[in-house]
Specification:
80 residues, 2 strands, alpha+beta
Length: 80
Amino acid sequence: MPLISKQKTYNRIAWHYVILDFPFERGRYKPLRQKLFKGLSGHFLNVGVGTERNFSYYADGTSLTVIDINPAMLGWAHWR
């Protein structure tokens, strides 16, 4: 699928993605993120940041560089 087509798809669904992903976030991802991010610090590059559900799990003082092909997803990440 061409990059432009993926951008259009994610622009269309970005604002609904958070709602659609909520059950998975609460039941599956949250406990995993708590374990994966425990004790991590430093500088991270997050490629394909999406709506960035990880922000709250990084330690204080962590530096992040985030990129995504989709402006709408970056909007959610910026809001977080």
